[in-house]
Design a protein that fits this description.
This protein is an alpha/beta fold. It has 2 domains: 67 residues, no CATH class; 113 residues. Helices cover 49% and strands 18% of the residues. Helix 2 packs antiparallel against helix 3. The protein is elongated, with a radius of gyration of 23 Å. The two termini are 46 Å apart.
């Protein structure tokens, strides 16, 4: 109950995607069924054992189906590929995207995380000093207010939006250029 209240009343939760942490509910169901099985009479234990085995098979089938539906390429690899194609090697992204992209690209792309303390000082330096930087945002994961704050902050040090590119997978790259005042923001 306290966990539910934390999620509902906390300022760390801003959308329904944060409720993914409640997917551990089946563990509680399995524990409850185990306790129930222990408390029933010996005559019903075989039925309960059969029922638990059946539940495990069903859950295993669901898990296999979901895992099979995962993309064959890691989403951060796709982001790295696009950024390399655009020759945008430095920039900004949320904690999850920045860490995965930096690791999977073996630091060919250096993204600084905008929503927590920097974990890579070189990426931070590059993101503040390169003539062109990328701002990667993921629909439903990045809070629009934080993105606007970052764009305003970067504007104060001379970066201005140049081109916004949206991708079908639900993410976008905003290219920002230093000293590009008065340039219209185009969208591709």
């Amino acid at each position: 109950m306290l966990l539910l209240l934390f999620f509902l009343l906390s300022d760390h939760v801003w959308d329904a995607l944060c409720f993914r942490y409640f997917t551990y509910g089946p563990v509680g169901v399995a524990l409850g069924l185990g306790f129930l099985m222990e408390s029933v009479a010996d005559s019903r234990r075989r039925f309960m054992a059969f029922f638990l085995g059946l539940m495990m098979l069903v859950q295993g089938g669901i898990l296999i189906q979901r895992v099979d539906g995962f993309p064959k390429i890691h989403p951060a690899d796709r982001i790295v590929s696009v950024l390399e194609d655009l020759d945008l090697r430095e920039g900004w992204a949320n904690y999850w995207v920045a860490g995965a992209a930096n690791f999977l690209s073996q630091d060919r792309v250096r993204l600084n995380q905008y929503n927590s303390k920097p974990f890579d000082r070189k990426a931070e330096w590059l993101a503040y000093h390169s003539p062109r930087v990328a701002l990667v945002s993921v629909d439903g994961l990045d809070e629009p207010g934080q993105i606007r704050q970052l764009i305003n902050k970067l504007g104060e040090i001379g970066y201005h939006p140049w081109v916004l590119r949206r991708f079908n997978e639900g993410w976008s790259v905003l290219e920002l250029r230093r000293g590009a005042v008065g340039s219209p923001l185009s969208s591709e």
